[in-house]
Amino acid sequence: MRIDAVEVHRVRLPLVSPFTTSFGTQEERVALLVRVVPADAPAGWGECVALADPFYSSEHVAGAQVVIRDYLAPLLMAAPDVHPQTVAVLLEHVVGHRMAKAALEMAVLDAELRELGQSFATWLGATRTRVPSGVSVGIQASIPQLVDQVGEYLDQGYVRIKIKIRPGWDVEPVAALREAYGDIPLQVDANSAYTLADAATLRELDRFGLLLIEQPLYEDDLRLHARLTELLETPVCLDESVVSARAAADAIALGATRVINIKPGRVGGYVEARRIHDIARANGVPVWCGGMLETGIGRAANAALAALPGFTLPGDISASDRFYRRDITEPVRMVDGWIEVPDRPGLGAEPLEDVLAEVTEDVEVLRAR
User: Fold this and answer.
1) Does residue 101 have an active-site annotation?
2) Are 304 and 119 in contact (CB under 8 A)?
3) What stretches of 9-83 show up as alpha helix (H) in DSSP?
4) Exactly one of 101, 160, 263, 277 is catalytic; which is it?
5) What residue ranges in 156-313 does DSSP mark as E strands?
6) Around Cβ 104, how many Cβ atoms within 10 Å?
7) H or E segment and range at residue 304
8) Active-site hit among 164, 266, 299, 322
């Protein structure tokens, strides 16, 4: 297909409650949605998962908007024929900016699959029609507050709990949750908050039977993660370190990880995410789908990805109301611990016009020259 125009919508959605991690507290989601308008196919939507500030990664919303406007969209619209599998090649001259690239690839996917009348799940090769729903819980003001919050999520039906940890907020909160709720599926996420000098503290977590500890050390150091993996019984899971299929293969070969969290935006899109899934599955490494506070657009796409056979652990695919009182799409719902995989053509979700208009701060319309 040929792309005639790219729309970039900057939206602002308040969160139901503040979400605190080792890199800060978020009270709202400022996000970029992109809409590609082909000459000969239905329009398609994508979502950029970059956060408002460059604290989780070097990418952030304002920078992503600039790079899409000035570099990526012009390259896409200059191409005579665009397909999901060729987007990465068309944009590879621009170094990095994987989240911005992933948003455009996602929109192209949506447009092509709408034209074909095919669901994203079918295109990916999904083998399930629903996926288990886990929830991510930020750092709380106190341990009793954490215990109460987790209890509410368990009552709602979430089948796996993940809590954020950082030095000084690790062993005690995990111990409190085990005491309160017994042998629930539980894992922790450090967002690179520790060093190898903290290995003794991290070893204390071994006695709690956690599913995994996610990204404990520096994101660019596979060697130290390999050493930590040798020291811990708890499986080490890599998140930020895995930015591509090549990085995933290196991490597995070096023994730096026993589990991989796949976030499509972080790796440049769903085409690369599927490659990582395939590499991990071939090496017997379980994967799961992480979340980035996505709206219903990204949440629907992640549900389809998580329905691939190698996703053997529950992911961060929660219901819309975990983060938003009103999502920009029809809400993603969790029923008895499960999220249904969309089976409509395309990604299976698109913005509701009235809600989109209400939360949109800015729209840039870029046209082919």
Assistant:
1) no
2) yes
3) 61-67, 73-78
4) 263
5) 160-164, 186-189, 213-214, 236-238, 259-262, 287-289
6) 28
7) helix 296-305
8) 164
Residue 198 per-residue DSSP state: G
For residues 243 and 2, what is the distance between their CA atoms, to the nearest angstrom?
29
pLDDT digits (tens, 9 = 90+) for 216-254: 999 999 999 999 999 999 999 999 999 999 999 999 999
* Mean pLDDT score across all residues of the chain: 97
Which tokens go with 189?
């996420």
- What does the pLDDT look like over 6-54, one tens digit per residue? 999 999 999 999 999 988 899 999 999 999 999 989 999 999 999 999 9
Euclidean distance between CA atoms 252 and 280, whole angstroms: 8
Can you tell me the distance from the alpha carbon of 177 to that of 192, in angstroms, rounded to the nearest whole number? 22
Residue reference for tokens 């506070």 = 293
The DSSP bridge partners found for residue 237 are 214, 259
pTM of the model: 0.97
The two structure tokens encoding residue 334: 């969790």
| Beta-sheet pairing, 3-21 with 24-38 | antiparallel
- CA–CA dist 329, 158 (Å, integer): 21
Q: Reduce the DSSP state of residue 364 to 3 states and report it.
A: strand
Strand, helix or coil for residue 158: coil
Q: Which amino acid is at 21?
A: T
C-alpha 345/C-alpha 107 separation (Å) is: 13
3-state SS assignment for residue 325: coil
Dump the DSSP string for 212-241: -EE--S-TT-HHHHHHHHHH-SSPEEESTT
